[in-house]
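FYI - complex with pyridoxal-5'-phosphate, inputs then prediction.
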Amino acid sequence: MRLATRAQNIGASPTLAMNARAKEMKRQGIDVLSFTVGEPDFNTPAHIAAAGIEAIREGFTRYTPAAGIPELKEAICMKLDRDNELQYEPADVIVSNGAKHSIYNALQALVDDGDEVIVPAPYWVSYPEMIKLNGGTPVIIPTAAEDGFKLRPEQLQEHITDRTKAIFINSPNNPTGAVYSRPELESLADILVPRGIVIIADEVYEKLLYDGAVFTSVAALGPEVKEHTVTVNGVSKTYAMTGWRIGYAAAPRVLAQAMANIQSHATSNPNAIAQKAAVVALTGDQTPVQKMLTEFTRRREQMVKGINAIPGMSCCKPEGAFYIFAQVASLFGKTIRERKINGSVDLAEVLLTEGHVALVPGAAFGDDRFVRFSYATSLDVIEKGLLRVKDVVAEAK
Ligand code: PLP
């Protein structure tokens, strides 16, 4: 069978692939410790889960409006106003099957063949693939650790062409944890807005902030910026609801309507039961979010300490999200148990097969000099896993 060119040009998500390998090894009885997936290990808070159960009991199990139930769209508008100083109406909001799907809808609605979409690197693995799937060209701009992995206005300027259609701004960032300050966002928006470039603001990690880091929603910079921005968020990371698959976007009405039309033909509505639970997540008791953050803060301390104690690895303290992007390039060119380490993929492979520790090579995020550890896992796994990494890396010659 000959597949479409677009399918031939796309691989599976490396994060999910690595996680699948770790799971397969576990199934075979191997004690693998995994730092791969960006998924809180907490259960969905009980009051949110109860709302899902109640929805089933009430028979709320049928199709809903394609772009989401009015109750949830109103809850999203309330949340954007409460948390982000953003005023939207329900008609500007589309509920999707996860923030990933919201991003896909936005690209479907925006990108024509040959359009360029700017992606600062390190980036979340799916951005370039989703751009390509929609006929666009990803324009990757590397950012530097010395700049806190943030895009500088001069860099942005250099990469804009008359085909530039959109840009991804992901703050807090996966995989680096970088959080853009308001002035930093303003200096980027000052370049983007006059050129009519659409900002896809991926804000799924907005609640995971450390050491007093302050989150600014891009669209809140002002009415003109808002007119050029699609704000993407979801309940997966904030409320430990990854499997419920509820994300959302708020956008200028013409874009929101186009995204809703596209979704109506591709998937119809997101899961009815999960929508009911998401209403309670956004409008109900927010203390579980704080509790999870407290736990993530402890894990982050332990991760940073543990990684910096491994000769050949180093990392900074991330300001947000739940990942550590650790520098490993000083191990390249060395050999561990007769395996040459030429890059992050080799290192991840050796750590998995020899140390039974799974993590994601930086190459998947657009920077081969790093590996990504997710600390959405227990303190126990962190402690044992980092000891294993240390032991394997100590053999590098
Ligand atoms: N955006 C970023 C930066 C992510 O890391 C993820 C998940 O890993 C998503 C979006 C997608 O989240 P979901 O589709 O579960 O809402």
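The two ends are 46 Å apart (CA to CA). The mean pLDDT is 96.
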